[in-house]
Amino acid sequence: MTELPYQSIPPLPEEINSTNIISRMIDGLGFRYYWATEGLRTEDIDFRPEKDSRNTLELLGHIYDLAFAANKVLGGNATKKDLSSYTELRKETLILYKDLSDRLREMPDEDLENYNYMGSAQSFPFWYLLNGQIADALTHVGQIVSWRRISGNPQPKGVNVFLGRKS
After folding, report:
1. Are 34 and 59 in contact, with CB atoms under 8 Å apart?
2. Cα–Cα distances in angstroms (integers) from residue 17 to residues 6, 23, 75, 81, in the given order
3. pLDDT tens digits for 42-64?
4. What is the pLDDT of residues 129-155, one digit of tens each?
5. Across 13-161, where does the E strand assignment appear?
6. Checking DSSP bridges between strand 159-160 and strand 123-125, what pairing results, if any?
7. DSSP classification of residue 118
8. Which of 20, 63, 104, 151 has its CA 20 to 30 A from that of 28?
9. Contact status, residue 167 vs residue 7, Cβ threshold 8 Å
Protein backbone atom coordinates (compact mmCIF):
# COMPACT_ATOMS: atom_id res chain seq x y z
CA MET A 1 0.00 0.00 0.00
CA THR A 2 1.67 3.19 -1.14
CA GLU A 3 -1.00 5.63 0.00
CA LEU A 4 -2.61 5.49 3.41
CA PRO A 5 -6.39 5.15 3.53
CA TYR A 6 -8.72 8.00 4.48
CA GLN A 7 -7.18 10.98 2.79
CA SER A 8 -10.84 11.35 1.82
CA ILE A 9 -13.98 9.48 2.82
CA PRO A 10 -15.03 6.73 0.37
CA PRO A 11 -18.16 7.25 -1.76
CA LEU A 12 -21.57 6.92 -0.11
CA PRO A 13 -23.00 3.42 0.26
CA GLU A 14 -25.80 2.54 -2.12
CA GLU A 15 -28.26 1.63 0.64
CA ILE A 16 -28.97 2.57 4.22
CA ASN A 17 -28.66 -0.34 6.61
CA SER A 18 -27.06 -1.01 9.99
CA THR A 19 -23.69 -2.20 8.76
CA ASN A 20 -23.36 0.60 6.19
CA ILE A 21 -24.15 3.20 8.85
CA ILE A 22 -21.51 1.82 11.19
CA SER A 23 -19.06 1.52 8.31
CA ARG A 24 -19.63 5.19 7.51
CA MET A 25 -18.97 6.09 11.16
CA ILE A 26 -15.66 4.25 10.94
CA ASP A 27 -14.87 6.05 7.66
CA GLY A 28 -15.53 9.40 9.36
CA LEU A 29 -13.29 8.37 12.24
CA GLY A 30 -10.57 7.26 9.83
CA PHE A 31 -10.77 10.54 7.90
CA ARG A 32 -10.59 12.63 11.07
CA TYR A 33 -7.68 10.52 12.35
CA TYR A 34 -5.82 10.81 9.04
CA TRP A 35 -5.91 14.61 9.09
CA ALA A 36 -5.46 14.98 12.85
CA THR A 37 -2.21 13.02 12.54
CA GLU A 38 -0.98 14.34 9.18
CA GLY A 39 2.25 16.30 9.45
CA LEU A 40 2.85 16.00 13.17
CA ARG A 41 6.22 17.33 14.24
CA THR A 42 8.41 15.96 17.03
CA GLU A 43 7.20 18.70 19.38
CA ASP A 44 3.56 17.80 18.57
CA ILE A 45 4.19 14.10 19.20
CA ASP A 46 5.88 14.84 22.53
CA PHE A 47 3.30 17.44 23.60
CA ARG A 48 1.21 16.90 26.72
CA PRO A 49 -0.98 19.67 28.13
CA GLU A 50 -0.01 18.80 31.71
CA LYS A 51 2.43 16.43 33.37
CA ASP A 52 -0.18 13.83 34.36
CA SER A 53 -1.81 13.53 30.92
CA ARG A 54 -0.80 11.36 27.99
CA ASN A 55 1.37 12.91 25.33
CA THR A 56 0.29 12.70 21.70
CA LEU A 57 2.35 9.58 20.99
CA GLU A 58 0.74 7.83 23.96
CA LEU A 59 -2.68 8.90 22.63
CA LEU A 60 -1.79 7.42 19.24
CA GLY A 61 -0.93 4.16 20.98
CA HIS A 62 -4.25 4.18 22.81
CA ILE A 63 -6.19 4.86 19.60
CA TYR A 64 -4.33 1.98 17.94
CA ASP A 65 -5.43 -0.29 20.83
CA LEU A 66 -9.03 0.89 20.39
CA ALA A 67 -8.89 0.28 16.62
CA PHE A 68 -7.42 -3.17 17.15
CA ALA A 69 -10.13 -4.09 19.69
CA ALA A 70 -12.94 -2.82 17.43
CA ASN A 71 -11.50 -4.72 14.48
CA LYS A 72 -11.11 -7.92 16.51
CA VAL A 73 -14.64 -7.78 17.94
CA LEU A 74 -16.09 -7.67 14.44
CA GLY A 75 -14.16 -10.59 13.04
CA GLY A 76 -10.83 -9.06 12.09
CA ASN A 77 -7.84 -11.38 11.98
CA ALA A 78 -5.07 -8.81 12.40
CA THR A 79 -2.31 -9.60 14.87
CA LYS A 80 -1.61 -6.97 17.49
CA LYS A 81 1.75 -5.33 16.90
CA ASP A 82 4.12 -3.74 19.37
CA LEU A 83 4.41 -0.31 17.78
CA SER A 84 6.29 2.63 19.15
CA SER A 85 6.73 5.20 16.39
CA TYR A 86 4.31 7.83 15.16
CA THR A 87 4.62 6.56 11.58
CA GLU A 88 3.93 2.91 12.48
CA LEU A 89 1.03 3.74 14.79
CA ARG A 90 -0.58 6.03 12.25
CA LYS A 91 -0.27 3.57 9.37
CA GLU A 92 -1.48 0.51 11.29
CA THR A 93 -4.42 2.36 12.87
CA LEU A 94 -5.62 3.61 9.49
CA ILE A 95 -5.29 0.12 8.01
CA LEU A 96 -7.31 -1.37 10.90
CA TYR A 97 -10.11 1.15 10.43
CA LYS A 98 -10.18 0.61 6.66
CA ASP A 99 -10.31 -3.17 7.09
CA LEU A 100 -13.11 -2.87 9.65
CA SER A 101 -15.14 -0.53 7.43
CA ASP A 102 -14.70 -2.76 4.37
CA ARG A 103 -15.83 -5.86 6.29
CA LEU A 104 -18.85 -4.05 7.70
CA ARG A 105 -19.97 -3.01 4.20
CA GLU A 106 -19.94 -6.66 3.15
CA MET A 107 -21.56 -7.97 6.33
CA PRO A 108 -25.29 -8.73 6.49
CA ASP A 109 -27.05 -6.75 9.22
CA GLU A 110 -28.10 -9.98 10.94
CA ASP A 111 -24.45 -10.87 11.56
CA LEU A 112 -24.11 -8.02 14.05
CA GLU A 113 -26.31 -10.00 16.45
CA ASN A 114 -23.65 -12.73 16.57
CA TYR A 115 -20.79 -10.48 17.64
CA ASN A 116 -20.05 -9.91 21.28
CA TYR A 117 -17.37 -7.91 22.98
CA MET A 118 -15.63 -10.21 25.38
CA GLY A 119 -14.52 -8.42 28.52
CA SER A 120 -12.41 -10.00 31.23
CA ALA A 121 -15.37 -11.54 33.08
CA GLN A 122 -18.36 -10.75 30.86
CA SER A 123 -19.58 -10.74 27.33
CA PHE A 124 -21.21 -7.55 26.05
CA PRO A 125 -23.45 -7.12 22.99
CA PHE A 126 -22.05 -5.38 19.93
CA TRP A 127 -23.69 -2.07 20.95
CA TYR A 128 -21.06 -1.45 23.61
CA LEU A 129 -18.45 -1.20 20.89
CA LEU A 130 -20.18 1.96 19.62
CA ASN A 131 -20.24 3.80 22.94
CA GLY A 132 -16.93 2.24 23.97
CA GLN A 133 -14.04 1.93 21.51
CA ILE A 134 -15.53 3.98 18.66
CA ALA A 135 -16.76 6.94 20.74
CA ASP A 136 -13.55 6.88 22.79
CA ALA A 137 -11.41 6.99 19.66
CA LEU A 138 -13.35 10.00 18.33
CA THR A 139 -12.75 11.81 21.63
CA HIS A 140 -9.02 11.12 21.47
CA VAL A 141 -8.76 12.23 17.84
CA GLY A 142 -10.30 15.52 18.97
CA GLN A 143 -7.63 15.76 21.67
CA ILE A 144 -4.90 15.37 19.06
CA VAL A 145 -6.45 18.16 16.96
CA SER A 146 -6.55 20.42 20.03
CA TRP A 147 -3.09 19.54 21.26
CA ARG A 148 -1.41 20.10 17.92
CA ARG A 149 -3.11 23.51 17.74
CA ILE A 150 -1.82 24.34 21.25
CA SER A 151 1.70 23.21 20.28
CA GLY A 152 1.66 25.59 17.29
CA ASN A 153 0.85 23.21 14.41
CA PRO A 154 -2.89 23.35 13.63
CA GLN A 155 -4.54 20.69 11.49
CA PRO A 156 -3.95 21.39 7.77
CA LYS A 157 -6.23 24.02 6.28
CA GLY A 158 -9.06 22.90 4.02
CA VAL A 159 -10.02 19.70 5.89
CA ASN A 160 -13.79 19.45 5.57
CA VAL A 161 -15.12 16.78 7.95
CA PHE A 162 -18.67 17.29 6.67
CA LEU A 163 -17.82 16.49 3.04
CA GLY A 164 -14.99 14.12 3.95
CA ARG A 165 -12.32 15.71 1.80
CA LYS A 166 -9.58 18.29 1.83
CA SER A 167 -9.88 21.18 -0.57
Report:
1. no
2. 22, 10, 19, 32
3. 999 999 999 999 999 999 999 99
4. 899 999 999 999 999 999 999 999 999
5. 116-118, 123-125, 159-160
6. unpaired
7. E
8. 151
9. no
